Amino acid sequence: MSALAPYVGKAVVVITSDGRLFTGTLQGYDQTTNLILESAKERVITPDAPTVVLDLGLYLLRGESVALCGLVDDEIDSEIDWYKVRGMRLGETKKLGR
Questions:
Q1: Residue whose C-alpha is closest to residue 30's, from 66, 56, 58
Q2: CATH code (residue 53)
Q3: How many domains is the chain partitioned into structurally?
Q4: Which one of 33, 46, 87, 90 has the fewest beta carbons within 10 angstroms of its own beta carbon?
Q5: Can you give the pTM of this predicted structure?
């Protein structure tokens, strides 16, 4: 049994390896962690502008891009004014030499 099995039919938040944030109802998944979200939304959080919420509808996330999947706490989520949320700029990254 997969660790995702208890999440099916419930509201989840997914963060991808490139930092995108999605919410929706988990409808299914497979052995490579491809996720099917119903009523999916993407929250685009930037340092300089209000958060934008994009309605995506039925959405498939490729498993290779999924970094985190967890349950949404509806009570906490509903108390957040996402319009006021801003991201922070990340510091410089450095390429490791050989």
A1: 66
A2: 2.30.30.100
A3: 1
A4: 90
A5: 0.85
